[in-house]
Design brief:
heterodimer; A: 263 residues; alpha/beta; 17% strand; elongated; B: 459 residues; 4-stranded parallel beta sheet; 14 strands; 46% helix; globular
């Protein structure tokens, strides 16, 4: 099949197939095996995905950027998973805060101005966690928040939190401590071979430890080749509004979500 | 009942069968996460000594998940075939290992044993086996199934063509199907994981594949791996449903997490059988295996439905669910679940070989999705190793994904090229019906028409 005479028609077919799908179709073969260029392309993508999983979030720098954007205090927190190897094998530790963070959060919550928000205002806790791709968070969290902020009429913003070695459910403990009606966790998704920097957003009404995934809504694939900041912010505002109206998130909201239909 | 074994001056005790099986399991992250793993290497081997001396009959009297609380346990106990079990009734677990590896254990004798073997027996003996034991024992066992192709024959290796697309776009899926067929994949099934779970999308994709199949006379079966209730809805609406798929696990509670029960699976099995869509296969038999199941170590723990049983024993229990429905295809999706269950290439490879061996011993047509995610400590070299080992072990089928990169599920599996590699390096062929098609006029016609892939959609 890799013979010279068949090469050009095979290449033409490969191009036509590739126009129809992002899948790795139309790969040539030498004997039964991949040709060198295709082999290396795959290894490059895997290398980028691995680097995304194992790179460390520049939390200080991200916190500074977010402070500038929001003109408000940003809390730096850490999960109970001390390092990446532990984080990968013990998801339970990534779902809770370490002792120092817990103390910091309690102290911050106690210093909040007493009195509940007015009827017109509910408290939103915005949390940024590295998850499985610090790269996604570094690229997309700040621009998405910048897009979102002007659209948050009627929400009071709790201190924004940046969490290292965090999983989605860590927003439950944080949201509860900050007495938020709703939490939004922006988190790096598990990198795919062609998407090392995909950001996800998880929305949870009445956050508290023990919430299940069925009680959250998720916006996925926020990145340059996926959902734009404008689209993602629009969907977030939709969920926030609906959640507030119906006092819930999760499967019950999913049915009417504005997610793109198939086909 | 407690169990014990002394090594030197240390006497290790194990609280019950569940504890003994868990502590005897070769190290994997999921058992550590569940808090059931051995606490030291010496404790692990002590458990293996104790397990080796355990009479197989004990595995019939003590259950790892209570009979009253779990319909999978009830299925295992109530369908156990004492007559088939008779030849090994007096064995210990260690003696079963010796027998399986001996010349006494011929293909026919092992096959006759299957209804007498429980998942716990299969799991127990596998915990005493090295990688080469898992390979040489599994290689003796052929489990052959039929629909429009015959899968699992000696000297054959089939591939599931997995043409997934991020938005279920029919043209994109057709392009991947064409690519796979031209590279000789698809003889196990053309099986699409849909991005959305929706009966009309399921029906549309099934009709597209069926049109292509009839136009080019391709001996294949199709499947859209939506939830089984969605597939039943599509079937009732008249969609051309070949195989019915469902993910399953080894406890009633974990299956509930998947939204299924034995009764629901039975309903699907009946509905599918009534369609009689199987064909006369190469040996003249009409294909009537219509179910397709996927499994994977760790699924019960991830649903918090593991009853403190180790993940490999629970995986074998899922095979008891599968074999009740005489499936066409069963495969473990071995590295998909993530490093908190199987941490690295070494753990994934052993688990894949355990699953293949246990499934075959229990009488299942085992394939394997040799795969990993980007947060596991694994790479293509690990996949090549496991792929080759499974080929030597006689695996029925593997996955064929374009370039090994599933752009919908975001994980790496094996490719069309990998299937070609394995066939070539081990001298294996495709399923006989499919092999004949690849050499015939219809295949040449498909290859010619492939110059205009979009036209294939209008079949």
């Amino acid at each position: 099949m890799s013979g010279g005479a068949q090469r050009d028609p095979a290449r033409a077919l490969a191009a036509r197939l590739r126009a129809l799908t992002p899948a790795r179709v139309g790969l040539a073969r030498t004997g039964a095996s991949l040709e060198t260029r295709d082999l290396l392309d795959f290894q490059r993508c895997h290398a980028q995905a691995r680097d995304a999983v194992h790179s460390r979030l520049e939390a200080a720098s991200l916190a500074r950027t977010l402070t500038e954007i929001t003109s408000a205090e940003v809390l730096r927190l850490h999960s109970a998973a001390p390092d990446r190897a532990t984080y990968l094998q013990r998801p339970d530790l990534g779902r809770g805060l370490d002792e120092a963070s817990r103390k910091l959060l309690t102290a911050r919550a106690n210093s909040q101005v007493p009195g509940s928000p007015s009827n017109a205002e509910a408290t939103l806790s915005l949390i940024v966690a590295d998850g499985l791709s610090a790269l996604a968070v570094e690229r997309h969290a700040a621009p998405l928040i910048e897009e979102l902020l002007p659209q948050l009429d009627g929400w009071r913003l709790a201190p924004l939190c940046v969490v290292e070695q965090g999983r989605v459910a860590i927003g439950d403990e944080i949201g509860l401590a900050l007495t938020a009606q709703i939490s939004v966790v922006l988190i790096g998704e598990r990198p795919g071979l062609s998407s090392p920097d995909s950001l996800g957003a998880y929305i949870t009404w009445a956050p508290r430890p023990g919430r299940t995934d069925a009680e959250r809504n998720c916006i996925s694939n926020i990145r340059a080749e996926g959902l734009s900041y404008t689209q993602a912010a629009g969907q977030l505002v939709y969920y926030l509004t609906e959640a507030r109206g119906r006092q819930l998130t999760g499967v019950a909201l999913k049915q009417e979500s504005p997610r793109l239909k198939e086909g | 009942m407690t169990f014990a074994h002394a090594i030197g001056s240390t006497r290790y005790t194990f609280a019950d069968l569940r504890d003994l099986l868990a502590k005897a399991t070769p190290l994997r992250s999921g058992d550590v996460l569940a808090g059931v793993a051995a606490e030291s290497a010496e404790q692990r081997v002590a458990a293996q000594y104790a397990l080796a001396d355990l009479p197989l009959e004990h595995l019939l009297s003590e259950q790892v998940v209570p009979y009253e609380a779990d319909e999978v346990t009830r299925l295992i106990v109530d369908t156990h075939d004492a007559e088939a079990f008779a030849p090994i009734r007096s064995f210990t677990v260690g003696e079963l290992r010796n027998w399986l590896l001996s010349g006494q254990a011929t293909a026919e004798r092992i096959a006759a044993l299957a209804p007498g073997i429980t998942p716990e027996m299969a799991a127990a003996v596998s915990k005493l086996m090295r990688v080469q034991d898992l390979i040489i024992a599994a290689r003796k066992i052929r489990v052959v199934t039929r629909f429009r192709t015959t899968v699992g024959l000696p000297g054959r290796l089939s591939a599931r063509l997995q043409p997934n697309h991020p938005t279920d776009d029919p043209a994109g899926i057709a392009a991947a199907i064409l690519d796979g067929l031209l590279l000789g994949s698809g003889d196990a099934v053309i099986g699409i994981n849909p991005a959305g779970d929706n009966a009309s999308v399921t029906a549309r994709l099934l009709r597209m594949i069926d049109g292509l199949r009839q136009r080019f006379q391709i001996p294949v079966q199709s499947c859209v791996l939506a939830h089984i209730t969605t597939q039943i809805d599509a079937l009732k609406a008249g969609a051309p449903v070949d195989l019915l798929f469902q993910s399953i696990a080894g406890t009633e509670a974990a299956n509930r997490g998947f939204g299924v029960s034995l009764a629901l699976l039975e309903e699907a099995h009946q509905a599918g059988r009534e369609l009689h869509r199987g064909a006369v296969c190469a040996d003249g038999q009409i294909g009537d295996n219509i179910m397709y199941f996927e499994t994977g170590q760790g699924s019960a723990l991830s649903a918090n439905a593991h009853h403190n049983v180790d993940q490999q024993t629970l995986e074998a229990r899922a095979y008891a669910v599968a074999r009740h429905f005489r499936p066409m295809l069963v495969n473990t999706v071995v590295g998909f679940i993530g490093p908190e269950y199987l941490y690295d290439g070494k753990q994934i490879a052993r688990a894949g070989l355990e699953d293949h061996f246990c499934g075959k011993l229990l009488g299942l047509p085992m394939g394997c999705d040799v795969c990993y995610t980007n947060h596991a400590e694994a790479d293509q070299d690990d996949m090549d190793s496991l792929l080759t080992l499974l080929g030597v072990a006689g695996v029925n089928y593997i996955m064929g994904v374009p370039g090994a990169d599933d752009v919908m599920l975001n994980y790496q599996s094996t490719s069309f090229h990998d299937a070609l590699y394995l066939r070539r390096v081990l001298g294996l062929k495709a399923a006989p019906e499919f092999e004949a098609w690849l050499a015939g006029e219809s295949f040449r016609q498909l290859a010619a028409d492939a110059d205009h892939p979009e036209r294939l959609l209008s079949a």
